[in-house]
Amino acid sequence: MHIIIHTDGGSRGNPGPAASAFTVHTENNEILHEESRFLGSTTNNVAEYTALRMAMEWLNDNASKLGVQKVDVLMDSELVIKQMRGEYKIKDGNLSLIAVQIKRIERELQLSPTYIHVRRAENARADQLVNERLDAQN
Fold first, then answer.
1. Which of the chain's ends, N or C, has fewer CB atoms near its CB within 10 Å?
2. CA distance linking residue 85 with residue 78, whole number of Å
3. What span, in angstroms and rounded, lies between the C-alpha atoms of 10 and 133?
């Protein structure tokens, strides 16, 4: 099975109240899972990375029973995409820690996701989930 994961994270203020979310669907756009989480006060970049880690943790729990063989991860954070591809170094210690956790899950799964940068409009549902989670905290 080939799955597509959209992730997003955001904070209102930087740092400020933050949330992360992801969606998982098939190539035929069948939704398999959606999830969001309020993070408290943190930065936008931590929220973006946390969303990716959440998605990878979900994948780790579900890939074998779904028969996942290929994963595309779509994000509107060019920074995270380029760092996960190894094009940019990760200088921030907090982000580096989360990235190490993500890479560990990738090795356990024996999957190498394809990281793809998309425009915000192409990541609308994950963005909507982040904003709904942030709105619910007010």
1. C
2. 11
3. 10
